[in-house]
Amino acid sequence: MPTGRDWFTVPFTDELVRGALDLEATERGVLPHRLPGWARRQIPDGQLAMAESQPSGVRLAFRSRATAVELDVVATKRVYRGAPRRPDGVYDLIVDGRLAGRGSVAEGDTVTIDMTAGTSETRPGPVRTLRFEELPGHDKEVEIWLPHDETTELVALRTNAPAHPSPRTGRRIWLHHGSSISHGSNATAPSAIWPALAAAQGEVELVNLGFGGSALLDPFTARTLRDTPADLISVKIGINIVNADAMRLRVFGPAVHGFLDTIREGRPTTPLLVVSPIHCPIHEDTPGPSAPDLSAMSEGRLRFAAMGDPAETAAGKLTLGVIREQLARIVRERAADDPHLHYLDGLDLYGRADHAELPLPDDLHPDAATHRLIGERFARAAFRPDGPFAAAAG
Hints:
Blueprint: E1 8-9, E2 17-18, E3 22-25, E4 30-33, H1 37-40, H2 46-53, E5 59-64, E6 69-80, E7 91-95, E8 98-103, E9 108-114, E10 119-123, E11 128-132, E12 140-145, E13 152-159, E14 163-165, E15 173-178, H3 180-183, H4 194-202, E16 205-210, H5 219-227, E17 232-236, H6 239-243, H7 249-266, E18 272-275, H8 281-284, E19 290-292, H9 294-298, E20 304-306, H10 320-335, E21 341-344, H11 352-357, H12 368-383
Parallel strand pairs: 6-9, 15-16, 15-17, 17-18, 18-21
Antiparallel strand pairs: 1-13, 2-5, 3-4, 5-12, 5-14, 6-11, 6-13, 7-8, 7-12, 9-10, 19-20
Helix pairs in contact: 4-12, 5-7
């Protein structure tokens, strides 16, 4: 660890930590959260509590002439019993808008999860240091994107030259909510999840409320979207409703209306884009729930399977096909009185033909190449001159 007057400590402030909605003070440092404290007190399960604490889209943004940067962190490593070891979370170093380095820490707190039993246990671990060296010596914009899928407690940030939070660029703020696909599952790096790629192409500032397994139309999430400053809002709805078998058709429609009504209470004219699910063969015509494929797990592979029966759709169980139909109808009807409300079919981001070329590795989540494809297509659809997020529409 460096000592002496040649190193400067940069405090973790709201101006430094971008993309988080709350910084929780801890015994070791600060923990970025993607839901505010009042919403976290309403979280009903450990899945969402874990997901919102994983800093997808969260980055440290500062300006400095520093040629070396050190970041002390406590990472939370997840271990799934019976599944292959997960790769360590990745930290992306962005200098003047370009990727300049990547790093990881191998140790930290460990959470062991038994997906079959639905249990978990936590073992505390050490603080570890991530170091980036040989940065250019000119005055520059530096971002460190935190791991999208690894809870990261921030302990200290040091630079070998004075550093200050980057000034706000004036770019529009894009607030996005979705499932694990938006969270970044199976992406290889935090700046390579599809919302980050789309934000870069659209030249907007991302606030990512993609929560693995937890895009369930929760009222506290709608209120968070309503109350968070944003110039653009999108909500990607569907896959978690199906794979959690969380609703029936009778409940789904009113729940969508209520979710959108809540957002509109605080953001009546903000461009609001509703995105339906991408193609996922196991749930296109088969209801949930989905569950880990135990035969695959016995071979050291993580795959998912649909556990529902297609015949159950007659009784109101939901499939992705049904949800797309319902979302398209709801947006079409509401848009008659809400010209700032828009719809994007998820099949335009990733459809049946795309699956033939780029299949979902675990039958549920896209890989790195597919994240890039989705990000590029979303950017073209949303940010085009006549698109719902066109600059003139902001």
